[in-house]
Amino acid sequence: MRLRPTLESWNWFLSTQLGLDLRRLARSLLGALPFIAAAYSFRRQYRGAWQLRPCLQDWGEEVGSINNEYFWQDLLVAQAIHKANPIHHVDVGSRLDGFIAQVASFRTLEVFDVRPLQRAIPRVQFTQRDLMQNVPVAYCDSLSCLHALEHFGLGRYGDAIDPAGSEKGISNLARLLQSGGTLYLSTPIGRERVIFNANRVFDPRRLLALAESQGLQLQSLTTISPKGVILSINDIVSELDFLGKEDYNLGLFVLRKQ
Predict the structure, then answer these.
(1) Residue 211: count of CB within 10 angstroms of its CB
(2) What's the CATH fold of domain 69-257?
(3) Is the distance from CB of 67 to CB of 95 less than 8 angstroms?
(4) How far is CA 114 from the centre of its chain?
């Protein structure tokens, strides 16, 4: 039952940490023969100077990669913010080259991250801040934290080691929000565990209990599978038990500060 997640975990480690991507190697091998045939055909028809630079990964690929959770969470939350048009939107730790760029294309936003940013970005006001520490109270009416909370306290991004990092993170996210404000929160959900120092996976029932203890009430829940399958969860109570026993999904929670 657990063989596939184990293989995926090892492939992630080999590819991202050691530069040995077995999937890319397999795709390159499959693209080698079409490349050779195409190069031979081109050379027969072209007599000018040329160079070889094989791009074996692109043979037979779709126009872009949309079957992943990052693409869909960034798109869905950016669209929600555009529709809501809040007065002051703040983001905590989301991707600059994805979600932040999308939102900055239509409005100004403020970004908090424990990591430094060396270059200014139009419409992005950046502050280096650790969300496990003290934060301003009732600072904004709209807040996002996408695929970031699960890293708090694990030291992956230079943050301090703190086993209670996620609890402190939830508390400080709630402190940042004004009454009636909206929090867009995405994080891995499933069998609760810590995968040090990569990320946590939260039991959605415990995560919602933490949120409710800080005055955050659930408005909607959407799940996104690692392959990009999107489900809007309507019957929250009955589905939470099932989701808590799954190995992994991305939970996209929309929460309102009471």
Answers:
(1) 21
(2) Rossmann fold (3.40.50)
(3) no
(4) 16
Task: Report the alpha-carbon distance of residue 177 to residue 98 in Å, rounded.
Answer: 23
- Lowest mean pLDDT segment, chosen from 23-37, 103-117, 141-155, 239-253: 23-37
The Cβ of residue 43 has, within 10 Å, a number of other Cβ atoms equal to 11
Inter-residue contact 11 to 23 (CB < 8 Å): yes
Q: For residue 12, what are the contacts with CB-CB under 8 A and spacing of at least 6?
A: none
Q: Tokens standing for 135?
A: 């934060």
DSSP state of 221: E
Amino acid identity of residue 149, one-letter, is L
Confidence of residue 226 (pLDDT cuts 50, 70, 90): confident
Exposure string for 135-166, b = 16+ CB within 10 A, e = fewer: beeebbbbbbbbbbbbbbbbeeeebeebeebb
Of 179, 251, 252, 163, the closest CA to residue 214 belongs to: 179
- pTM, to two decimals: 0.86
The answer, yes or no, to whether residue 64 has pLDDT greater than 70, is no
What is the spatial distance between Cα 165 and Cα 133, in angstroms, rounded to a whole number?
Answer: 10
Residues making up the chain, counted from first to last: 258
pLDDT digits 0-9 by tens, 173-206: 999 999 999 999 999 999 999 999 899 999 999 9
Closest residue by Cα to residue 254 from 91, 142, 135: 142
Specify the pLDDT at position 13.
81
- 185 forms bridges with which residues in the sheet? 145, 253
HSE-up (13 A, CA, CB side) for residue 11: 12
Contact 88, 69 (CB under 8 A): no
